[in-house]
Amino acid sequence: MKTYALRLKKGDKLKESILDVCIKEKIKAGVVISSVGSLDKAYIRGATGEVVKEFNMPLEIISLNGTVSYERIHLHISVSDKDYNVYGGHLMNGCIVNTTVELVILVLDNYQFASEFDESTGYNEIKIIDIDKEY
Question: Is the pTM here over 0.90, yes or no?
């Protein structure tokens, strides 16, 4: 297994930067195994899948985890504000790095994460392909 360690800088877009790395490095399947840093702005979708909340304030990243590939990014994030209130949910595009974000992505060599529409959920969901198996 290979790992990628990266540091995003002030003003970088979090989700978009992760996708850029996956495309550049041709990551077929990976997971975020470590993440620390802060944001100036965040967009987080709630559990209903219907509401995206915008946060325009300094936020500390408490956790960021999920699956990544050059085809899809599915990450959940938890952040805290200056009063230690914690918010979390599905990471959306447009989140802006405040000072820094340090990330480590672990690549899963024998898999490919694709995307396919699931009628039962109404969303594009992960399609896990074991590239060592023949179908």
Answer: yes
